């Protein structure tokens, strides 16, 4: 299930990046 692990890692990084972006630019939300 290496593919599933890669997908999970990508989703985790994307979620963290989205949270950081929301904190840096709160006027967009």
From TrEMBL:
Domain of life assignment: Bacteria
InterPro entries: KdpF
Transmembrane helix as UniProt keyword: yes
Pfam family, one: Potass_KdpF
One GO CC term on file: plasma membrane
Record keyword tRNA processing present: no
Keyword set, alphabetical order: Membrane, Transmembrane, Transmembrane helix
Residue ranges of the TM segments: 6-24
Gene Ontology MF terms: P-type potassium transmembrane transporter activity
NCBIfam families: potass_kdpF (TIGR02115)
Name of the protein described by the UniProt record: Potassium-transporting ATPase subunit F
Organism: Subtercola boreus
Origin organism lineage: Bacteria, Bacillati, Actinomycetota, Actinomycetes, Micrococcales
